[in-house]
Amino acid sequence: METKLLWLIAAGFLGGYLGRYSRIPGGVLLGSMVVTSWANAKGVHLSDLPFAYVLSLQVLAGALVGEKVTGRILKDMKEMMLPVFFLLTVVMASVLIVMMILYRVFGWDYITAWLSSSPGRMQDMIVLAGSLKADGAKVATVHLLRHLSVVFLTPLILLISKKAGAKQAKALNK
């Protein structure tokens, strides 16, 4: 194995280790991305992953998603069809609008714009971007910022909703 590839793997594991113990949600992925990105930004091009590695990661990502589907999920789908259809309709409409803005206003290619604006696990979107020859850096950056905004805004939203819920409960008790 070439030295640069070993450095890439080492940087990824170091970042993943730091991310895991930071207790940030998704810290392993974020940490490995930050450390390897930092090295690349500093001009230390570590290596490109060989195709066999990328393919293996895609297979593992697919298996990770597939293992979450259980008989209970399939059973519960029947009850969830209407809310899920509504949610998908609204989300897909907003994704298409954002995609067209990224494409027309900012000049991004269709696939990069689509994957950047699509909801989904950051890991899956990054792997998909690589296999579809999209601009993985843009897709990763958008999903990283989306992820961080959810992580940092959730406590604020919970605080606001808790206050709103307390006001609502107080009004009902009068």
Automatic annotation (TrEMBL):
Alphabetical list of Pfam families matching this protein: AbrB
Keywords: Membrane, Transmembrane, Transmembrane helix
This protein's GO CC annotations: membrane
Biological process, per Gene Ontology: regulation of gene expression
Bilayer-spanning residue ranges: 44-65, 85-106, 140-160
Presence of the UniProt keyword Aminoacyl-tRNA synthetase in the record: no
Superkingdom of this protein's organism: Bacteria
Coiled coil (residue ranges): none
NCBIfam families per record: Gneg_AbrB_dup
Name the UniProt record assigns to this protein: AbrB family transcriptional regulator
